[in-house]
Amino acid sequence: MSSHRTLLPVPLLVLSLFPLAVHADELDTLQFRAGQSFMHDSNVFRLSDSANAQAVIGTPDRDDTVAVTTAGFKINKPYGLQRFEFDANIEDHRYSRFSYLDFTAVNYAAAWRWSFTPALHGNLTTDRREFVDTYADVQGTGQINRRTNRSTIFDAEYELDGTWRLVGGLFERTSANSQPNTFEGDSKVHGAEGGVRYVYPSGTSMAYRLREGKGEYPGRFLSPVFAGNFTDREHEFRFDWAPSAKTTLRAKVAHFDRSHDGLGARDFSGVTGQLDAAWAITPKTSLAGGVVRELGSYQTTTASYYEGWRFFVAPTWKATEKTAVRLRYDHGARDFKGPLPGFAASGRRDTTNLLSLAVEWQAMRALKLSATVQSDRRKSNEPGFDYKSNTFGVAADASF
Predict the structure, then answer these.
(1) How does 219-230 read in b/e, with b if 16+ C-beta sit within 10 Å?
(2) 320 C-beta neighbours (distance < 10 Å), count
(3) What is the 3-state secondary structure (H, E, C) of the chain?
(4) Which of 45, 115, 185, 266 has an alpha carbon within 20 to 30 A of 294's alpha carbon?
(5) How far apart are CA 265 and CA 343, in angstroms?
């Protein structure tokens, strides 16, 4: 089950392929990127302290070092009133001990920032992102879960006058998991939205949108336990405000409702929201923070959904023109609700704490070096869902 391999100093190889005097500029139409990172994780599978690692993963060792090699490019091309963007990269993940976890991800984001007239404009975007979902509850499988999110969105805005705008759009979003038995499950939703937006001369704006969608859980069929199809409805209010040149505030609050065809016991609804703030305290120091209210599907016999909240605070200190120190703390809690008929609610409650510290050094205009240390903790009143993980990583990123 275990294999040990030598990790090659790929950054040196990558950087030797081009002159470092060449660098990417924000105005370049075409940019190339390459990077290499190494991260040591003390608990790759997010196993509980009470878990028997030998029985679950075949070894008492829970830690591993993963090397991630990235290569990509970005295109940003204006053409009259239009702008075309394309950003793509390949990420190759290689584990030193648990080599069966190796994978290669292809991620991309494309956008057409269209404008038929100065008053009628919008976006057509599509993207794909594959990543390791460390919060998926698959600890007992001896595997990690890779989640792939895709979305295609068309939106439009028509300026009725200097302040009022009509907004609307169409969307399709999918989420797929590499592990078949995740409680969140795969999902696919398509729908439409419409509303109004009011923009003040200062740039402050308020907006209301009604969003409706039809969805399914691919691979799941209607049964006394699982629902196959669902309908979403969401009323959303947004507020964007910049009270000063150094401060920004963004807020949204919504009421979300999901009803399942033929299995009303899985229905859930409630208030969601998010508040983000950023403050440039001095030219060298800044502070960001936010609060999020969550609501999502989570299907077991003792729960159908979760309600949660989390907050974060993230100060940044630019010690010099080329160095930055970033600290971030996240704290959150989730309650799992909605048992099926005949089953008692588990009363499960999870709390999470994530603390990270990163140091970045712009060694030259084409090369950035960084080091990160992170502590990730989850406590739960349900046995087996708690974990502790400490990670340390270094990375080199080049652009040209």
Answers:
(1) ebeeeeebbbbb
(2) 9
(3) CCCCCCCCCHHHHHHCCCCCCCCCCCCCCEEEEEEEEEEEECCCCCCCCCCCHHHHHCCCCCCEEEEEEEEEEEEEEEECCEEEEEEEEEEEEEECCCHHHCEEEEEEEEEEEEEEECCEEEEEEEEEEEEECCCCCCHHHCCCCEEEEEEEEEEEEEECCCCEEEEEEEEEEEEEECCCCCCCCCEEEEEEEEEEEEECCCCCEEEEEEEEEEEECCCCCCCCCCCCEEEEEEEEEEEEEEEECCEEEEEEEEEEEEEECCCHHHCEEEEEEEEEEEEECCCCEEEEEEEEEEEEECCCCCCCEEEEEEEEEEEEECCCCCEEEEEEEEEEEEEEECCCCCCCCCCCEEEEEEEEEEEEEEEECCEEEEEEEEEEEEEECCCCCCEEEEEEEEEEEEEC
(4) 45
(5) 11
CA separation for the pair 114, 107 (Å, rounded):
23
- Closest alpha carbon to 265 in 150, 343, 177: 343
Half-sphere exposure of 75 (CA within 13 A, CB side): 13
Is pTM, for the whole model, over 0.85?
yes
In the chain, where the domains are located:
10-399
- For 316, other C-beta atoms within 10 Å of its C-beta total 18
Tokens of 72: 């990509």
Give the confidence band of 227 by pLDDT, cuts at 50, 70, 90: confident
The structure tokens 């065809």 sit at 261
Token pair in block for residue 272? 């969601």
Which residues, 6 or more positions from 53, have their beta carbon under 8 angstroms from its beta carbon?
47, 59, 60, 61, 62
What's the CATH number for 10-399? 2.40.160
Please tell me the predicted confidence (pLDDT) of residue 28.
60
Provide the terminal-to-terminal Cα distance of the chain, rounded to the nearest Å.
40
Amino acid of residue 209:
R
pLDDT in tens, 134-166: 877 776 778 889 999 999 999 999 999 889 999
Strand 268-280 relative to strand 305-317, pairing: unpaired
Which residues are registered as beta bridge partners of 33?
72, 399
